[in-house]
Write a structure and sequence with these properties.
- By secondary structure, this protein is α+β, with helices and mostly antiparallel strands.
- It has one domain: Winged helix-like DNA-binding domain superfamily/Winged helix DNA-binding domain (Arc Repressor Mutant, subunit A, Orthogonal Bundle).
- The chain is built from four helices and three strands, in the order αβααββα.
- Strands 1-3-2 form a three-stranded antiparallel β-sheet.
- Helix 1 crosses helix 2.
- It is globular and about 50 Å long.
Length: about 90
């Protein structure tokens, strides 16, 4: 279930995998393996929810950016969570 956290963070700005890991840990309070993050990002990219680009200023890094399709997915997930929360009240 890393994908909603990644998409939420990528709404703010493009990030590389280690940066996403640090942000998830500091803002949401849990950690995970970088290999898991890479698998999730690869799947999000295959499904068209994020795109990536290499940036070579300084150290070369692969940055990920959310797409309109990714924004739609995140919004539908937010709606789902709201519905689920209302059912458990």
């Amino acid at each position: 279930m890393l994908w909603p956290y990644f998409l939420r963070l990528l709404m703010e700005r493009p990030m590389y995998v280690y940066e996403l890991k640090k942000e998830v840990t500091s803002r949401f309070g849990f950690t995970f393996q970088l290999s898991a993050a890479s698998r999730v990002l690869r799947k999000l990219q295959q499904d068209g929810h994020v795109v990536s680009e290499w940036r070579t200023e300084g150290r070369p890094r692969k940055y990920y950016r959310i797409t309109p399709k990714g924004r739609e997915l995140l919004e539908s997930f937010r709606k789902y969570l709201t519905e689920m929360q209302s059912k458990f009240r």
